Task: inverse folding
């Protein structure tokens, strides 16, 4: 591709440009020393002797080069303004994107010029090379790239000199002219006028190596997107996913609503919340950990099909699967049960896959995932029994279940996993611990895990056939939970009792952790250090009567991970939360 050859030729000018810069700095009072052509970030000028530069660390050398380039480009900005040109434009009227030009004029023969075409484009310069009276540049916009063919005869003398002296790789340029295809078959805009729209002051990463520092990619996503254009494709796909979800929900008669981010009580899930303080009200508020309880209030109020796409905030760990703020869709439908939500989950994921990939068999990190129906549906008890050979329905007390789990999981007495197991207050909790440890990671193909224990499902309706279970499912793909749904609990007395038991269990775990910390005389895990309280207003709303209903939450970030073959959740969130830089 000519763009790569352009960059290679530009990089070969490094030694020449650096020597020119040094000579210019040494010549006191020379007015035009900024007329150095900075064709690549490596072409930064420096007045330090080579031996001094070698003594500096790579980091300080990089910073010095960056500062030198910035100083040169700032002088170019001053010079342009002195000549009456504003290097930060208000607008540019463009007629086409680069992709539109590539598609419309692909039929041209090599060497053919389409003089009747009058086109105007804009974008960032990503490559540049000059040969006397001819300058080639590659420009990139949101849709792709195209070459600019700049010949001295087609520009004014002033413009051609400006092109050579003031324009650098990384600048944003507007250009107009006709269309030609070079003898080598490169479609180009035959430029007769151009304008600097934005003068770039800082150099972008090296063209060939790109931005490879993973931490810097996440911290400076804008550079990541410029240096690695495929990153922007992930966010285009994310936008399509969200759009397709909305289309699907609307096609089934759901309406989108908005509920508070700041809440008086953190409810709808068991998770550590972020706490803030409202000065005027003189009260603490919580960033929501779920949208569930307010959406259910909408059902009480008479809306029968509602959903919300929104940010959720949980003050918990960071990993390739978890970010403290993430995006979900939660939906609730009156007069339906969790079977309805399984069908809707399949519909949403399949439509999103077709909209973004065009197929139902996709590759995820080297494994083929089939999204074709029917998806497997199996109970939690059955999956655990298949994996371990143990039927947890046979245990009449929690201690027997714990002892069996210890043997299955091989926990050491003092391990953190064993502490978590010991904190389990029921057979249902132990079953869930074994499921999460042994089974979860094996659920590679789409699987609905059904009928969770009542102890770990405080918002789900009791199972209509099996005592001690609830009508709840979680959807797993690639060993990750994608969705969670239930037939909703509508009995206000049962709901209050469940919440109160949940608070007791939380406080018991909190006390156990505190006791362990005191005995170890060390800093403990603060997983349960927060307080849980009842949402009295939600309980009151249930007493006015909520219709039979089902509800589901789907993790949009994890769905986008699946559809873009992204290994980390940070790859699909434009600006993820990161640790402070040291």
Result:
């Amino acid at each position: 591709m000519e763009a790569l050859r352009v960059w290679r030729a530009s990089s070969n000018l490094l030694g020449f440009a650096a020597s020119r810069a040094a000579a210019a700095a040494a010549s006191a009072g020379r007015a035009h020393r900024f007329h150095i052509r900075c064709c690549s970030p490596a072409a930064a000028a420096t007045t330090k002797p080579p031996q001094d530069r070698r003594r500096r660390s790579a980091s300080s050398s990089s910073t010095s080069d960056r500062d030198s380039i910035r100083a040169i480009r700032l002088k170019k900005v001053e010079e342009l303004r002195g000549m009456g040109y504003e290097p930060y434009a208000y607008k540019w009227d463009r007629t086409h994107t680069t992709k539109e030009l590539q598609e419309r004029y692909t039929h041209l023969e090599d060497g053919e010029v389409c003089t009747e075409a009058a086109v105007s484009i804009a974008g960032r310069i990503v490559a540049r090379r000059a040969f006397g009276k001819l300058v080639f540049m590659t420009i990139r916009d949101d849709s792709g790239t195209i070459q600019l063919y700049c010949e001295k005869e087609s520009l004014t003398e002033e413009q051609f000199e400006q092109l050579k002296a003031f324009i650098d790789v990384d600048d944003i340029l507007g250009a107009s002219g006709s269309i030609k295809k070079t003898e080598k078959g490169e479609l180009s805009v035959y430029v007769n006028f151009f304008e600097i729209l934005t003068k770039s002051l800082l150099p972008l990463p090296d063209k060939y190596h790109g931005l490879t520092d993973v931490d810097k990619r996440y911290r400076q996503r804008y550079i990541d997107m410029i240096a690695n254009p495929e990153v922007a494709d992930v966010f285009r796909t994310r936008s399509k996913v969200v759009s397709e979800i909305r289309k699907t929900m609307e096609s089934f008669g759901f309406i989108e609503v908005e509920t508070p981010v700041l809440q008086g009580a953190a409810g709808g899930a068991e998770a550590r919340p972020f706490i803030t303080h409202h000065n005027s009200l003189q009260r603490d508020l919580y960033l929501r950990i779920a949208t569930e309880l307010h959406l259910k209030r909408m059902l009480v109020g008479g809306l029968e099909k509602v959903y919300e796409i929104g940010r959720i905030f949980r003050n918990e760990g960071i990993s390739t699967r978890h970010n403290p703020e993430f995006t979900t869709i939660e939906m609730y439908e009156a007069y339906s049960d969790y079977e309805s939500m399984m069908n809707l989950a399949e519909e949403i994921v399949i439509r999103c896959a077709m909209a973004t990939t065009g197929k139902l068999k996709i590759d995820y990190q080297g494994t083929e995932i089939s999204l074709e129906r029917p998806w497997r549906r199996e109970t939690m008890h059955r999956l655990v029994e298949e994996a371990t050979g143990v039927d947890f329905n046979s245990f009449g007390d929690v201690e027997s279940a714990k002892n069996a789990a210890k043997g299955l999981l091989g926990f050491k007495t003092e391990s953190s996993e064993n502490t978590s197991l010991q904190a389990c207050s029921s057979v249902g909790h132990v079953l869930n611990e074994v499921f999460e440890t042994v089974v979860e990671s094996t659920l590679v193909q789409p699987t609905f895990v059904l009928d969770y224990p009542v102890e770990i499902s405080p918002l789900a309706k009791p199972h209509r056939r099996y005592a001690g279970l609830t009508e709840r499912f979680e959807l797993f793909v690639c060993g990750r939970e994608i969705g969670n749904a239930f037939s909703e609990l509508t009995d206000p007395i049962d709901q209050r009792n469940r919440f109160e038991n949940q608070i007791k269990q939380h406080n018991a775990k909190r006390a156990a952790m505190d006791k362990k910390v005191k005995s170890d005389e060390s800093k403990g895990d603060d997983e349960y250090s927060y307080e849980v309280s009842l949402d009295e207003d939600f309980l009151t709303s249930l007493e006015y009567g909520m219709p039979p209903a089902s509800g589901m939450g789907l993790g949009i970030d994890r769905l986008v991970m699946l559809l873009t073959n992204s290994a980390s959740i940070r790859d699909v969130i434009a600006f993820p939360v990161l640790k402070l830089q040291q």
User: Anything to note?
Assistant: The domain at 98-198 is CATH 2.40.50.140 (OB fold (Dihydrolipoamide Acetyltransferase, E2P)). DSSP finds 18 helices and 18 strands in the chain.
